[in-house]
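in:
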């Protein structure tokens, strides 16, 4: 796991609730909200392969061609698949779905809440509609599901949450908050003696929300050391977690040293302490500064431009040769989220403070390198002044030692 070869599990809390096996039962029904989406369909297939006979899939829209084909395959395998349409964020729909299950299907034994939508963007530019749209299925939806099933003897109540609520993610403030609500609700349920599990998934490969994101977002994720979850491994993890006792678990394949190198701020999170490799972080930070310290002025400029060129290429998911030194960063495609990432990395590795907005003002790499160099020179001057002041103080202290002894 530390080498990033396996799925990394960050166990946030492990309340003791016994070793009861929550295996899938043929004589039960299972509700999958967002069941006509990519992960919902994956779960449905996995459940049927585990022996489930009665699956309920919900969504607001009728199944598309892919969903229809999978439903037919599941039915051909002997399962009964009911599609119940409705908006999970309204109490009325949730009631209707549950009433229909109770009237015509075997007892409901498990809920997988996988309904969700994305509407990414920086918070300053987000409107209320974009915020509530993302919150609705995860906040209202989860709450109604919780309220209206709390008297049923469920074996599991699983929320498909995201690593965004565990670690944060650029441009996903609304999505992180929505998922955090589910994480919290699951802990609340456990406190009430009810089953509950929130899985903070990383991005899944092949299909689903993350796979639909623009390529540069995916590249950015990969460049931060987080790899996509292969469906087979994801389902394996789900199976393990359903028979486990954790209430919140992060599941994402990750290369920890690279992860902490790209996002050093996260190394401070207490629950990631076990994975923190401080040495890696320190040495990466030291490397470029050390080189700059011993370089001549012309060499410093070269070092900084090539440092910035490779950072920007990395963040934008491009090759170094595609990054032009005299071209404005925004013209090359740097957006505000990438600017924040660049600011964070430059701040951590060079210990200089360039506001993220500066990167969006048409600045080129050459101009940026000059600006950083100036900040470094001022810092060196300040350090030298402090050093010489310290020396003077030391000299004075030498003289004043006598007085102290006298006193
Ligand atoms: N895919 C990933 O990489 C990933 C990573 C971390 C977490 N997750 C979480 O896993 C879940 C499933 O993701 P996915 O990739 O399968 O997404 P998806 O393919 O977009 O499926 C989500 C489904 O939710 C349904 N839905 C959205 N709002 C709804 C509402 N108000 N009422 C009822 N249904 C609603 C959508 O159908 P309609 O639009 O027809 O209603 C859609 O089919 C999401 O909650 C997501 O946050 C996914």
């Amino acid at each position: 796991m530390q080498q990033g070869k396996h799925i990394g599990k960050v166990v946030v809390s492990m309340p003791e609730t016994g070793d009861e096996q929550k295996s899938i039962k043929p004589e039960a029904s299972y509700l999958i909200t967002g069941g006509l989406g990519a992960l919902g369909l994956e779960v449905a297939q996995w459940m049927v392969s585990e022996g489930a006979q009665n699956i309920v899939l919900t969504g607001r829209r009728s199944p598309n061609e892919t969903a229809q084909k999978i439903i037919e395959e599941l039915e051909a395998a002997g399962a009964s698949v009911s599609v119940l349409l409705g908006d999970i964020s309204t109490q009325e729909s949730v009631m209707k779905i549950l009433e229909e299950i109770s009237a015509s299907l075997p007892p409901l034994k498990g809920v997988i809440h996988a309904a969700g939508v994305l509407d990414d963007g920086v918070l300053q530019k987000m409107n209320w509609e974009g915020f509530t749209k993302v919150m609705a299925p995860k906040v209202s939806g989860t709450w109604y599901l919780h309220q209206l099933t709390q008297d049923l003897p469920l074996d599991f109540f699983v929320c498909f949450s995201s690593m965004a609520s565990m670690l944060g993610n650029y441009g996903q403030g609304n999505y992180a908050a929505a998922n955090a609500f589910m994480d919290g609700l699951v802990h609340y349920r456990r406190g009430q003696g009810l089953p509950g599990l929130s899985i903070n998934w990383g991005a899944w490969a092949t299909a689903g929300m993350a796979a639909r994101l623009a390529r540069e977002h995916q590249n950015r994720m990969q460049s931060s050391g987080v790899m996509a979850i292969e469906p087979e491994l994801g389902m394996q993890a789900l199976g393990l977690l359903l028979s486990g006792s954790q209430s919140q678990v992060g599941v994402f394949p990750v290369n920890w040293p690279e992860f902490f190198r790209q996002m050093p701020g996260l190394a401070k999170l207490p629950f990631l302490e076990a994975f923190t490799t401080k040495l890696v972080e320190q040495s990466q930070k030291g490397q470029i500064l050390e080189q700059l310290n011993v370089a001549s002025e012309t060499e410093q400029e070269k070092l900084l431009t090539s440092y910035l060129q490779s950072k920007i290429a990395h963040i934008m998911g491009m090759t170094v040769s595609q990054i032009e030194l005299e071209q404005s960063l925004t013209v090359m495609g740097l957006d505000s989220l990438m600017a924040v990432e660049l600011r964070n990395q430059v701040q951590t590795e060079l210990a200089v403070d360039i506001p993220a907005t500066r990167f969006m003002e048409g600045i080129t790499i050459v101009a940026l390198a000059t600006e950083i160099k100036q900040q470094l020179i001022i810092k060196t001057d300040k350090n030298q002044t402090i050093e010489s002041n310290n020396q003077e103080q030391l000299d004075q202290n030498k003289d004043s030692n006598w007085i102290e002894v006298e006193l």
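note: The pocket of NAP is lined by residues 33-34, 36-40, 58-61, 87-89, 114-117, 136-137, 141, 160, 162, 201, 203-204, 208-210 (CB under 6 Å).
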